[in-house]
Amino acid sequence: MDKNSYYDLSNTNDIAILGGSFNPIHIGHCGMAESAHRMLGIDIVLMPNKTTYYKEHKVFAPDKDRLEMLRLVAEHYTYIYFSDMEIVRGGVTHTIDTIREFKKLSPERKIYFIIGGDSLEWVDKWVDAEELLGSVTFLTAVRGKTDRHRASEIIDRIQSEYPKSHIEILDMYDIPISSSDIRRLRSEGEPIDGLVPDYIRDYIYENNLYIGEEDE
Questions:
Q1: Does residue 172 contact residue 143 with C-beta atoms inside 8 Å?
Q2: pLDDT of residue 57
Q3: Sheet with 80-82, side-by-side order of all strands
Q4: In whole angstroms, what is the distance from residue 120 CA to residue 139 CA?
Q5: Cα distance between residue 193 and residue 212, in whole Å
Q6: How far apart are CA 136 and CA 129, in angstroms?
Q7: Mean per-residue pLDDT for 185-206?
Q8: What is the per-residue DSSP string for 13-48?
Q9: Distance of CA 103 to the CA centre of its chain
Q10: What is the pLDDT of residues 44-69, one digit of tens each?
Q11: Taking the model in full, what pTM does it have?
């Protein structure tokens, strides 16, 4: 794989991790990566997870296809990479497991972790939240004044409860797209143009992904 795709774990530079199922990756994900790079000037690592326990009823593309779509995205950016760490680990995996693995490889590396505003609402309930909040700097994407106000309230609460936590706001354009919307449109035979990069759309069509019915 070329240097702009698979992330070399021996690299010790500061990074921002964007995790998720990427089922599929869409322009909202790309927007978060672009905004984080614009803010920090560092590499972004896309970290796809295995099918998690609360999403097992969803239509999932095979791991190889989700990884290939991330590779295609990474080819179009000089600063975006991807890692199969959580997929290789297998089973139900938690963010803290990934952070521990990165910290073991490079204890002094600064790690940012990008999340959406919805995840900020419950990030302090994640597994081993106290350790996690003290180990990485969370970047929470906000869209507009309302989101920023709500995010600021949550950040104040979390930082009062976890003094070692680090959370910053990541401003970005409002991109109201979800992977579930894309899967639903595919199951209904509707176009997905403008929701994913053109090359991801082509890959989805060529490989007949998400043509089954999406479970409720």
A1: yes
A2: 54
A3: 80-82, 43-48, 15-20, 111-116, 137-142, 166-171
A4: 9
A5: 19
A6: 11
A7: 97
A8: S-EEEEEE--TT--HHHHHHHHHHHHHH-SEEEEEE
A9: 19
A10: 999 999 865 445 556 789 999 999 99
A11: 0.92
Rounded Cα distance between 4 and 60, Å, is: 25
List pLDDT tens digits, range 1-47: 454 588 998 889 999 999 999 999 999 999 999 999 999 999 999 99
**Structural tokens at position 174:** 């409002």
Which tokens belong to 76?
């179009």
H-only helix segments in the chain: 27-40, 63-75, 85-89, 95-105, 117-120, 129-135, 144-161, 179-187, 198-206
Structure tokens given for 155: 């950040």
The SS3 assignment for 160 reads: helix
For helices 198-206 and 63-75, the axis angle rounded to 10 degrees is 150
What does the CA dihedral 190, 74, 7, 182 come to, rounded to 10 degrees? -10
